[in-house]
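re: ur question from yesterday

yeah so i grabbed the chain u mentioned. its 179 aa long if i counted rite. heres the sequnce exactly as i have it in my notes:
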Amino acid sequence: VGANGMFLTKLEYGIPRWQVAASYSHKTSDPNASAGFGTAAGKSRTGETDALGLRGYWKPETAGLIPAVSVGWDTASIDDDGTDGATEETTGWMVGLSWKDAFVDGNSAGLAFGQRQYASEVVGSSDDPADENFIWEAYYTFKVSDNVSVTPAIFGLTDPKNGTDDDLTGAIVNTTFRF
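ran it thru and got these structure tokens back, copy pasting raw so excuse formatting
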């Protein structure tokens, strides 16, 4: 919405056990249109945006105590109109750990945590109240049969709404049937 043009590219390298990837995007926006992205002060981004994403994963040769690891980091620079409260830079990151054949062959477990994208640089301020957000989740998948698996998961969000301290915790159970 409000974009005049966008360029996106991705470069990746790896083998089945590991991979690294980098992506870059450049977005040109109409300064007279709302781009629909909120900022720390609730205003819209209007200028050009340059974003960079880095990803990687590594898997051990055999299942065991050592987990597979996934990591990601994102940043974006926004060329705004310079008004107080406008976002100039955003940052986000994540780490994921997963275990294959956890406790029982065919079962798996995982844990992930990180921070959602937040304004790491704001005009007229050095702090975004959402910079203390933290998100996590944990799951365990039980293989009931060759065709059925059950995955209970728990998750939590600390300070998810721009500094309001409205922490959230939840749970879900997903059942998968394969035919």
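noticed a couple things. The chain has a mean pLDDT of 85. also The first strand starts at residue 3 and ends at 15.
anyway ttyl
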